[in-house]
Amino acid sequence: MSELKRKLAGWDTIIIALTVVVLVIASLGVPNFGTSRNFTFLVLDLMPILLVALPMTFIIVTGEIDLSVASTLGLASSIMGWLWNQGLSIESIIPICIIAGAVLGALNGFLVTGLGLPSLAVTIGTLALYRGLALVVLGDGAVADFPFNYTGWVTGTIGGGSIPNVLILIVALAVIFGVVLHATPFGRSLYAIGANAEAAHFSGIRVARTKFWLYVVSGAVAGLVGVLWTLRYSSARADNGAGLELAVVAAVLLGGVSIFGGKGSLPGVLAGVVLLAALQNALRLQDVSGQALNIVTGALLVLSVLLPNIATSIRSTWQRRRLRRAATV
Amino acid sequence: MTTAVASKPKRPQFSLGGVLKTRELGIVVALAVLVAYTAISNPRFLSGQSVRDILLNTAIIAVMAAGQAVVVITRNIDLSVGSVLGLSAFTVATMMSANPGLPMVVALLVGLAVGGAAGLLNGVLVRYGRVPALVVTLGTMYIFRGLTYSWAGGQQVNADELPRHFLQFANASFLKIPWLVLIALIVVGGVSLVMRNYRVGRELYAMGSSPQAAELAGIKVSRNLLGAFIVSGALAGLAGVLFAARFGTVDAAAGTGYELNVVAAVVVGGVAVFGGSGTVWGAGLGALLLTVIGSALTVLDINQFWQQAIVGALIILAICADRLVAVRIARSLRKKDSHV
Predict the structure, then answer these.
(1) What is the pLDDT of residue B77?
(2) Which of A105, B29, B82, B273 could lock onto B258 through a cystine, CB 3.0 to 4.6 A?
(3) Where are the alpha helices (DSSP H) in A65-204?
(4) 3-state DSSP call for residue A156?
(5) Nearest residue to A51 via CA among A273, A304, A243
(6) Where is the secretion signal located (chain B) (predicted)?
(7) Distance to chain A for B273, nearest Cα, Å
(8) Measured in whole angstroms, how far is the alpha carbon of residue B330 from the centre of its chain?
(9) CB pairs under 8 A between A and B
(10) Strand, coil or helix: what is A143?
(11) Is B75 left (phi over 0), alpha (psi -120 to 50) or beta?
């Protein structure tokens, strides 16, 4: 019973409920929100944030961070454009871009685990480095003439219906990451690392190696998203995805993952991503500017960390008062 | 080295050995080599106009970096500075275009006040909300930028709407030094002095070295932390006024992405992200180095696109160097202990 109660009071449950409420209200109250056309746009809009948020959740659960993801995405997009200009086939370019992302992630992983540098500083550095390299590779131009059967697949729907093709990819990856995090010993070891890296090390978990591979996966996913982004807009550009890292971190924290590590769930994160994307989409349909939504995003982010803290401090004050009363009686 | 200074009860004294050992020496050497090499391959690099441009470009980032250094030294971070600059620049530009008669001092004070209020909000959320600074300032970065956008919409304040004396401020000089540069020098020098020689400065270092120990030692952690965030915000606000005066055209996007340059300047300048070490004038030098690299690339006819990649590589190099120093200090401390 108390287990259920604790689960119900958890932040991720609140955020999932809030997301459902927002989706229902928007479908009923906002014209065109519930249409199948808008559903396709909504899925396409949340795709990059959601995919990048999956490995980011793992990394933040272990108490680290990766701010370089959006720059990795941009560099993968630049490489894609450059290779296409060199005349390579799209079938060989796509795996190369994903591998390039993994290599960039490996560099992050090496700097963080091999040299023991703080991940925040390292990935601020590679954020600038990878974005710079993206500019070096492709300059400030764009490459646009990607084959239609690929760009059309990314923006298209299954059989011309209302379910976007990319939703299959999103669901598949989300399920894989969810099962790994919540149903395997590896997933549990991530929480152990985040709660206390030293204790995890002494209990036989290979902390450094685990973190290294998380960065590799994060880079590979960012590379994949770079490809999808390029195909969606039919445009390879060095500045693709600029600023996305902050939206991803915001969504992950909003989903109830603690920035200190050791806490959080993937369903919460998915709700966080959907909530942000649905709000943005609904407000845009209402002609509220996307920039004004920055206020909502920022406020939600701060509140998602602030409110649980306030709740805890109120609860502990009550407890203390009750104890004191019990002592005086 | 710098970490050890925090625990010394007496004032740090000037000595040649000490200067040679500081981390800032590395930046000075890098700067000297870069300037010498660039000047030899293209003498125009050291012309009056070119030097003046470099100094003017450095001034705005250096003012923000001084505030950021104070926050980073306490083991926090302020990612909202770019948005605070935008909010302050738009506020002041709107005010000056509506009231052209207002003196420059009022503009500077309003900028400081807008930024200070933003910094106070950050500090309160970090200290009393117990929310990590990274999350708070990431959130307020969105919030302040959103406020500016919903206020400004798509409109901008143009140079021809601003009073002449406001625009001239950026170029006018005092003793042949542009006011902008003079203000940056005063800010970096003043904050350095306080951090180095005054009790509150040493307390901020102590808070960054060990937050728990500082609390136990009776340091007024709340007051100091709020102060650090207010300083960072206020200086970002001041930078907003300088930005508006220098560029004349201000829209809601002013200062977007500056937080990266500022954090880069601070980290490259030798301030450790774990807090507790580094100097404010080092951060100022970091800002100068980044600007000089930008101009040198242009002068040397190297693709401008390399600039950001070099900045990134420099940040990583700087943290590697920092780590090396920390490992060495730890080793030498262990050695000392074993002889006791």
Answers:
(1) 92
(2) B82
(3) 69-85, 90-109, 119-138, 148-155, 166-183, 185-195, 197-202
(4) coil
(5) A273
(6) none
(7) 7
(8) 29
(9) 145
(10) strand
(11) left
Q: Please say if the pLDDT value at position A105 is more than 90.
A: yes
How many angstroms separate the CA of residue A263 from the nearest CA in chain B? Answer: 15
**How much is the pLDDT for B10?**
47
CA-to-CA distance for B180 and B171, rounded, in angstroms?
8
A187 touches chain B (CB under 8 A): no
Nearest Cα residue in chain B from A296: B143
Note the pLDDT of residue B231. 96
Query: How far is CA B205 from each of CA A129, A192, A310, B29, B67, rounded to the nearest angstrom?
Result: 30, 32, 29, 26, 14
- The residue among B319, B320, B327, B328 with the most chain A CBs within 10 A of its CB, best to mutate, is B319
- List all residues of chain A from 124 to 183 with a beta carbon under 8 Å from chain B: 124-133, 135-136, 139-140
Chain A, residues 91-120, CB within 8 A of chain B, namely 111, 115-118, 120
CA angle B27, B267, B117 (to 5 degrees): 125
C-beta atoms of A302 and B135 within 8 A: yes
**Tokens encoding B114:** 């807008």
Shortest Cα–Cα distance, B212 to chain A (Å) = 17
pLDDT in tens, A140-184: 889 988 989 899 899 888 887 788 999 999 999 999 999 999 999
Q: Residue A85 corresponds to which tokens in the numbers above?
A: 């200009």
Question: What torsion, rounded to 10 degrees, do the Cα atoms A215, A216, A222, A224 define?
Answer: -160
Tally the C-alpha atoms within 13 A of residue B180's C-alpha that lie toward its C-beta. 28
Rounded CA gap, B168 and B245, in Å?
Answer: 7
Tokens 């102060």 correspond to B227
The 3-state secondary structure of B267-335 reads: HHCCCCCCCCCCCHHHHHHHHHHHHHHHHHHHHCCCCCCHHHHHHHHHHHHHHHHHHHHHHHHHHHHHH
* ipTM associated with this complex: 0.83
Fold of the CATH domain B53-323: ABC transporter involved in vitamin B12 uptake, BtuC (1.10.3470)
Tally the residues of chain A.
Answer: 329
Domain boundaries, chain B: 53-323
- Please, what is the Cα angle at A289 between A132 and A39, to 5 degrees? 85
Which residues of chain B have a pLDDT value below 50? 1-11, 19-20, 340
B189 vs B285: CA distance, rounded Å: 12
Q: Each residue of A253-295: pLDDT tens digit?
A: 888 898 888 889 999 999 999 998 888 888 878 776 666 777 8
Q: Is-contact A100 A223, C-beta < 8 A? A: yes
